[in-house]
Amino acid sequence: MNSSVRIFCGWLSLVGVILLGGCDMPDAPQFRLNMVQMVSDATPTPPAYQEQIANVLDGMFGTPDEPFALPETGLDLRKLQMAAGPAWTDDKGANFGLYRKHCVHCHGVTGDGRGPTALFLNPYPRDYRAGVYKFKSTYNPARPTDEDLHRVLINGIPGTAMPSFSLSPQAELESLAEYVKYLSIRGQMEIALANYAFNDLGEEETVDDKGEPVLDDEGEPVMRLIPLDPASDEEQRTVITELLAEIMDPWNTVNEQIIVPEEGAIPVDNRPAEDVAASVAKGRELFYGIRANCMKCHGPTGLGDGQQDDFDNWNKAHKQFLDSLASSSEEDELTGTRDSVAASLYPIRNAIPRNLRKGIYRGGHRRIDVFWRIYAGIAGTPMPGSGPASPGAQGTLTEEEIWSIVDYVLSLPYETPSRPLEALPTNLELVN
Amino acid sequence: MTHPFRILVATVITITALAQSHAVEWGSIKGKFVLDGAAGEPAAINVNKDAEFCGKHDLKDETIVTGEGNALANVVVFIYAKRGQKLEVHPDYEAAAKTPAKLENKGCRFEPHLLALRTGQPLEVSNSDPGIGHNTNASFVANPGFNEMVTNAAPIVKTLEKPEPVPAPVACNVHPWMKAHVVVREDPYVGISNEKGEFEIKNIPVGQHEFIFWHEGKGNLRDVKLASGKTDRRGRAKLKIEAGKELDLGEIKVTPAALGK
Lengths: 432, 261
Hints:
Chain A is mainly α. Chain A is 42% helix and 2% strand. Chain A has 3 domains: 1-30, no CATH class; 31-258, no CATH class; 261-310 and 350-430, Cytochrome c-like domain (Cytochrome Bc1 Complex, Chain D, domain 2, Orthogonal Bundle), CATH 1.10.760.
């Protein structure tokens, strides 16, 4: 919608000329609840709590048209406002509603990766709500830095439907990255609230005016849900403030979690060809060896045809839910909801290890990008890290070894698999 | 801060701690889980990686493990603690809190299948399968997860700072059939039923506690009949621990449906 229509409609409603019609305003988009979480075995959430969780989230984060951010989140509300709401351009050419203009068709209003095009894409668009991102410069469990999110917006993700937004002005990219963070933090809060409601609130016995338990016809105590209502319950307010602080801490301290390679181990530019060849040979040995064990998943020829039975965390969560549904014979108040949630899910996909012979690197093709992938693994996927898991920890491989694997991996698109003498693994007995 | 003040504070804390540990009395709980019906034979694992080594271990699906007389193993019993609430811990548990809890990759499965540890206690993950590469991928609710290679050379050591509300899944992605759960609690009061279906938790501070009953199959075990009453819709039961006594829950029957069978 453009600004003149907004202003016109605004003016119409201001003077109360509703009967005239003509302003066919669609309903304002709403954030959707994380229903897989709500009906999971871990936090089965009754409808009353679902509504209360939605209310609390609404209070903490606002709506897709009018975002809000508590000061504790450190989010920049002006950036969020530039990304939120319907797409329009003001008379000076400044763009607003950037998320709905550029992102929403794939990533969805809620950032759940369920926009209208999502079903047709492979890989599915990222669901931001767990706060887990694959392509980043930080240790495996850490959040991405602002720069990491920015890099993905600039480069897009080669080999996927994620395009590059490198033509967008810097301010627009910053606004989008902030909005993506906002959707993550909101999604993480939703999961935390579902856990809080299930674990710490739940049912209690009702008591009458005299403090006596109320019993039903069979003499069983009548139960009631303790409402999730932080507005009138100070203890709940304190807990929710704590939960938000726990979610924010990893975001706020992410700069301490950046993997900075040791100067001494970084291969110099313009290495002599024989040095590169020696490093590639060493990388190859590691690739097939059991310490790095790359070959088990990426396959003996690096085509990504090794272990293909596993799932990433996003698909795994859906699979676990569907499995538990298939084996469930009990009926409860969520039974109908479970069926409709199951019907709404897209087909589950296996995590297919990357084909390393294509020369397409989703997280970036620079040596440092490939280094980060091997060092930290890829969060949310089966790919494990081989470097230290946190600052100061002991890794499986040295940085020098990781750089050698980088050399080998980057050489793979140019090593033809049809030359079997060169392509055969060094320790064949492990290939099966 | 000046030294005398520090010493004063330390003394006050010590005295308070001592006073508390003297005031608390302890009791225990035990029981035996039995599967009330048939869960069927555990399915054989399709060993499609490292088949030469892993294939010789006769691997079976370990979601539901039963022993003689349908005894149900791997039921976890632990005490619900409200956010920020700390249970008194008996001094007998002190030494164990510092000993690493060990999770071993052995024979292409995790040993043990269920492991309890306390916050701050080291978790040591090792690989005893010669020449086999494993990775250990742990997903938590409250703690940051991890996913690392584990070699024969050295175990990886982790410390978890926060208690987990439910047992957390651990997997190996090279061999996706490999599954385990770790129960991370602030206190040591976790019982895991053995192959006889039996569990026991000793030296629990007296009083009424809310016990959670959990099994890998479908999570919290709701509507399970106990000697008095049953577990609620969240798989919990309020039970009273009395000084110097052991609360015996006797035989606790769990239906296959409660385990998702």
